[in-house]
Amino acid sequence: MIEINNLSKNFGKLKVINNVSLSCNQGECIALIGPNGCGKTTLIKTILGMVIPSKGTIKFKGEYVSKNFEYRKYIGYMPQIGRYPDNMTIGQILEMIKEIRKSDLDLDEDLLHQFKLKDLFNKRMRTLSGGTTQKVSATLAFLFNPDVLILDEPTAGLDPLASEILKEKIIAEKQKGKLILITSHLLSELDDLITQIIFMQDGEVQFHKTIADLKASTGEEKISKAIATILKAKNNE
Amino acid sequence: MNRIIKFIVLDILKNKIVLVYTAILSILSWSVFSLEDNSTKGLLTLLNVILLTVPLISVVFSTIYIYNSSEFIELLLSQPIKRSKIWWSLFFGLTLSLLLSFFIGTGIPILFYAPSDVGIMMLLVGFFITTVFVAIAFLSSILTRDKAKGIGIAIMLWLFFALLFDGIVLFLLFQLSDYPIEKMMVGITAFNPIDLARILILLHLDVSAMMGYTGAIFKDFFGTSIGIFIAFIILFLWIIVPFLVSLIKFNRKDL
Known about the structure:
The complex is a heterodimer of chains A (237) and B (255).
Chain A: E1 2-11, E2 14-24, E3 29-33, H1 40-48, E4 55-60, E5 63-64, E6 75-78, H2 90-101, H3 110-114, H4 130-143, E7 148-152, H5 160-175, E8 179-183, H6 187-190, E9 196-201, E10 204-210, H7 211-218, H8 223-236
Parallel strand pairs in A: 3-8, 3-9, 6-7, 7-8
Antiparallel strand pairs in A: 1-2, 1-4, 4-5, 9-10
Chain B: H1 3-13, H2 16-35, H3 39-68, H4 70-77, H5 83-113, H6 117-143, H7 147-175, H8 182-189, H9 193-202, H10 212-222, H11 225-251
Helix pairs in contact in B: 1-5, 2-3, 2-5, 3-5, 3-6, 3-7, 3-9, 5-6, 5-11, 6-7, 6-9, 6-11, 8-10, 9-11
């Protein structure tokens, strides 16, 4: 569904993404992990067309994403830090995005109800706490029933209850056969969610494996331990 | 009208600064016309006020508004909307609302007191100047990510066009007074939209007789319909060029 070919991105002299090639298919739930500043968010933003790649191409459903914008209606994106117009209320933001997407049909308002956002509809975005802003971001990402969900640190800043609601929602969507791309640092949280792992470091993809493969090759049961084993092995090389 | 423009116009019209701007223009215009017994004199006074305030407010307000819309732009970018459409909508939204306040503030009094050729010309010139400085604001806000720098650039550009440019031209006139540079002066005015606007109006106010030989040359050029046409084309270029440059830059920007 998403094909990335020899993608590179420089910010001035700094190479943020270096010759990355990946392919992600429907029904997969992929964790994108790696240390801070390894280019995870930049990679996600290039897929969305928010960052323009220096080299390489990205295809979405067989079509190049550069100079294209229609493909974004199949993507639900939850940013790491959601930034919204200060003066708009939650209700206005949701209304506006609905109007822009021109779709009132087939809305998925599960999260809206479960997060009880309706009670906060008249609150301005400026007055919201970080966690509530994250809830709005999550609601927007799932609202239009997209085929692909891209979640950048979805549970950071959410309280345990909300984060559990979100996790269950992700599992439910995964079972509908959607492609889900998650970045996270909390490996323990990902255990029962994901089917594949992409590990990035210094702008390069170190490995892209299925969980079964990863567990088999390291002999570990937990993802976090399996990854630690691989990293140790790499350091010893 | 597309949805994004609608959201932007509604947002700007709720902004108190725009309301105050409209009120100030309105107070100025009505009082100028009621103080002068002759509407031509009124227009002349109003011209100087307009050519100082309208560019300043247009450029500074637009620059700040564009910087403050960064969240809005980011939010829209992850939606299925063409990048250039976001930028165009922002431009149209800002221009439309500022034109509306100019029309309410200044246009109505002009149409009331001086519904002549000059009055209409003044209205047109005001519309053009507003749009030109919105376009310049787009250019200055895309040049740098730093809000303070961007606003600084906008104010500098206003200062240059509103005050410094005339100083430079006067300096050149005195230094090169031995040479026949009058015709060249017509060309130089093309580099300043405010001067262009001023000359367009002055030459229709019958005060050009007092401007000496240079005035006569100006009258020769800007007095004809071809001259007026060319002047408006140049004003139009002053809108299109800065905006298109900013659009190209915006399309390549990383957010």
